[in-house]
Amino acid sequence: MMLVAFLLLLVFTGGSSSNKVCSYQDVLDHLNLTADNSVFKLTRPVLDHTHPTVVELDIILYAVLAVTEKTQTFIPFVWATVMWNNERISWDPDQFCGITHVSVPRGLLWRPDLFIYEMTQKDDSPLNPYMFVSHDGKVISEEDMKVVSTCKMDVHKFPFDTQRCNITIGSAIHCVDEIRLLPFSNSSRATQFSREVMKTQGEWEFLQLSVDSYNFSFDHRQWEQLVYTFTIRRRPLLHVINFLLPILFFLSLDLASFFIADHRGEKLGFKVTVLLAISVLLLILNDILPSMSNRTPLIATYCIVIFGLMLLSLLETILVTYLMEKDSQEKLRLRDNLEDKQVKNDNCNTEERRRSGSSCICKASEGEKQCELLPMAEEVNNSIQARESHVLLRILEELKELQKTLNLHLNCRQEVCKFGRWAARINRAFFIFYVTTVSLFLCLIFIEWNS
């Protein structure tokens, strides 16, 4: 009977242990972890206050939402994992059907007071309402954050710039003796994870995520910080197509305008139109770049120098146009004077022929005409035939026209055409200077951008 009773006891005991049912609530009841129990959330969870709480932090970049140069704001979307040890929590998984971890509301346990130094706006992302607690007391808190932080940007090489923005994390009231901040992942691992989970980068290309630890002293106490540095590079294609190339095209048009005739007004109007187009692009640049910068951006130098060269080209065109107009006026005045003198000479010839029937020969001496009468014997006039007289008169008229043209060119070379010659020399010299300056400047500015 005793043997049968013992066997029955073994059977019932084995059956009850194999069919044992456990729940997460059993673990919480074992820990006495309730909303009313303040022992888990009021103070730092250590049994000896001299033991520091080791907090391990891991940050992975999900996306680069925005980078604003005007306000120097960097907005990443990150996944943050915080791990620490709670010395008041432990249980044996074998007693609870192998349960190794449970999830509890965030308000039931103490959490380290970590904050971001560069954060300028409160995070409005939905918080994860639970934390994971392991059987050995390890507490894990995970959450997604939209961080609106300030970043000191260097836009000297815009749009071929690379920015480095920091997220500095530290404790508000706990020094090194109370909380130790350690990175869970090193720089290479954090960079690799970020590239694998990266959702969007937008205008920026993610290059590297590095993590460093710093200590600083304040009020005779040491404080520890973790600094995560995000290295991102701008994708310049959009700015090159929408800004740099149009300015280069306008510069090419300004160079091509040197082949337009100077005596017309189209060249001056064309250069003014191109200059106004550059002014509109400068207004767009003013909206892009920040108002304060340590160094002048290269793109601003690029625009200002090209604008200055085009303005100088416009002034040169105005000067050349003035000289050409001056030259045209002087030529017109000289032509009028010569025509007046020619009319007087013709009148003189007609009058003298009537009086004496003699020939009038005009001589040119230093730009002035003198008329001499050559009396001929009446006998000679009677002997010249009518046909020969007509031929001589035609030859005399042609010689006078040739003399008139020659005098006009001689006077133009000596007095008037100097304005036209100066205009041609200025135009040629400025064109050589313009092409040389533009070529050297573009080479230097692109070398500086690529350096």
Structure description:
With 451 residues, the protein is of the alpha+beta class. It folds into two domains: 213 residues, Acetylcholine Binding Protein, Chain: A, CATH 2.70.170.10; 172 residues. 46% of the residues lie in helices and 25% in strands. It is built from nine helices and 13 strands. Strands 1, 2, 3, 5, 6, 7 and 9 form a seven-stranded mixed β-sheet that branches. The chain has a four-stranded antiparallel β-sheet with strand order 4-8-11-10. A hairpin with a 2-residue loop joins strand 10 and strand 11. Helix 4 packs antiparallel against helix 5. The longest helix has 59 residues.
Features:
four-stranded antiparallel sheet; seven-stranded mixed sheet; 2 domains; alpha+beta; 9 helices; 13 strands; 451 residues; 46% helix
Give a nutshell description of this structure.
This protein has helices at 2-18, 24-31, 187-197, 237-256, 266-288, 298-356, 378-383, 386-416, 418-450, and strands spanning 53-68, 73-85, 101-105, 114-116, 130-134, 138-146, 149-150, 162-171, 179-183, 204-218, 221-234, 359-365, 368-374. By secondary structure, it is of the alpha+beta class.
User: How are helices and strands ordered from N to C?
Assistant: HHEEEEEEEEEHEEHHHEEHHH
CATH level-two architecture of the largest domain: Distorted Sandwich
Average pLDDT reading? 81
Task: Write down the CATH class of the largest domain.
Answer: Mainly Beta
Largest sheet: 7 strands, mixed
Taken from the alpha-carbon principal axes, the silhouette is: rod-shaped
DSSP, total strands: 13
Report the helical percentage: 40-55%
Q: How many helices? A: 9
**Main structural class:** alpha+beta
Percent in strands: 15-25%
Rg over CA atoms: 48 Å
Distance between the termini: 97 Å
Count of individual domains: 2
At the fourth CATH level, what is the homologous superfamily of the largest domain?
Neurotransmitter-gated ion-channel ligand-binding domain
Indicate the low-confidence ranges by residue numbers: 1-18, 356-377
Q: CATH fold name of the largest domain, please?
A: Acetylcholine Binding Protein, Chain: A
